[in-house]
């Protein structure tokens, strides 16, 4: 018996769905196009309050201008340091702690897991966190952006579920061969966990790169500002102070709007470059850890 599959045309419901998706996509794309267009527009032909879908005259003047300022370079270095060091420590702490929680023989296993879940539901709040950072002497330090958030409950639970989905027979065989838990972790668990490591590396890196609120309350020295904090000053402050804090000496050299857009693009580019290399690991790395009970 053969079955004939009839191809059906698009229904009215399909057309409505496709139209809505297209409109939403355009609504999301147009702001990015505007930002890119203004950032590459020649300051001499830029007209305020005019919508630019494509630059009337291409120019890199705004990028040369913003990259020549000390404040932007310092902010970029600060953000890069926080992102690289913070992400590495996040991965180390999260995966080692999650691996320990997979061991039922760990003393106090249930209590530790209960504390992790407790932090997922309840939070101390902004003021206790600030007082803790202050008492530790971390205020106005890069470590105030790194140490308080070495890991989080959601990441631990997902990573723990991912590690539990790996075949336990591999560890048993390694232990029979004389490997310790630490050796088995680095030689067996870590190589098998590369999809999850790649996924959470991007999660943690994006979180550190886009960190704004913690930088706002912990970093008072403008020389240690992160990119997001500097861009906030450039974008929100519409007077000459914004340009002055960006290291400018003459605000008439380049229109402030083109400087804002150029700084936004420069802040987005690193993540846009890294993301395609880790995107293929998303589905495998996250889904395996999310469906394991």
From TrEMBL:
The UniProt record lists the keyword Cell wall biogenesis/degradation: no
Keywords, in A-Z order: Cell membrane, Membrane, Transmembrane, Transmembrane helix, Transport
One annotated GO biological process: transmembrane transport
Location of the protein in the cell: Cell membrane
Broad class of where this protein is predominantly found: membrane
GO cellular component entries: plasma membrane
Domain called ABC transmembrane type-1: residue spans: 76-277
Membrane topology per record: Multi-pass membrane protein
InterPro entries, per the entry: MetI-like, MetI-like_sf
PROSITE patterns reported in the protein's UniProt record: ABC_TM1, PROKAR_LIPOPROTEIN
PANTHER family in UniProt: ABC TRANSPORTER PERMEASE PROTEIN MG189-RELATED-RELATED, POLYGALACTURONAN_RHAMNOGALACTURONAN TRANSPORT SYSTEM PERMEASE PROTEIN YTCP
Family membership noted in the UniProt record: Belongs to the binding-protein-dependent transport system permease family.
Name of the protein described by the UniProt record: Binding-protein-dependent transport systems inner membrane component
Species of provenance: Paenibacillus illinoisensis
């Amino acid at each position: 018996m053969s079955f004939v599959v009839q191809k059906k045309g698009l229904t009215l419901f399909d057309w409505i769905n496709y139209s809505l998706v297209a409109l939403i996509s355009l609504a999301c794309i147009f702001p990015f196009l505007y930002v890119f267009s203004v950032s590459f527009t020649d300051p001499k032909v830029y007209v305020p309050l005019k919508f630019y879908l494509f630059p009337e005259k291409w120019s890199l003047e705004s990028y040369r201008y913003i990259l020549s300022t000390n404040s932007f370079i310092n902010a970029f270095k600060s953000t890069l340091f926080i992102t690289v060091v913070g992400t590495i420590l996040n991965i180390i702490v999260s995966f080692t702690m999650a691996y320990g929680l997979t061991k039922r023989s760990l003393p106090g296993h249930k209590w530790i897991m209960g504390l992790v879940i407790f932090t997922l539901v309840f939070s101390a709040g902004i003021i206790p966190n600030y007082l803790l950072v202050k008492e530790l002497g971390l205020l106005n330090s890069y470590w105030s952006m790194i140490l308080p958030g070495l890991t989080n409950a959601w990441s631990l639970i997902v990573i723990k579920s991912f590690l539990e989905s790996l075949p336990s027979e591999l560890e048993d065989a390694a232990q029979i061969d004389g490997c310790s838990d630490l050796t088995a972790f680095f030689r067996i668990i870590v190589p098998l966990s590369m999809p999850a490591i790649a996924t959470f590396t991007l999660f943690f890196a994006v979180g550190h790169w886009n960190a704004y609120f913690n930088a706002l309350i912990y970093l008072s020295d403008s020389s240690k500002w992160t990119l997001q904090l500097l861009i906030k000053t450039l974008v929100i402050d519409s007077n000459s102070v914004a340009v002055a804090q960006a290291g400018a000496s003459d605000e008439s050299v380049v229109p402030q709007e083109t400087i804002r857009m150029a700084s936004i693009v420069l802040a987005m580019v690193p993540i846009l470059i890294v993301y395609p290399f880790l995107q293929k690991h998303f589905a495998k790395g996250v889904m395996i850890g999310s469906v394991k009970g």
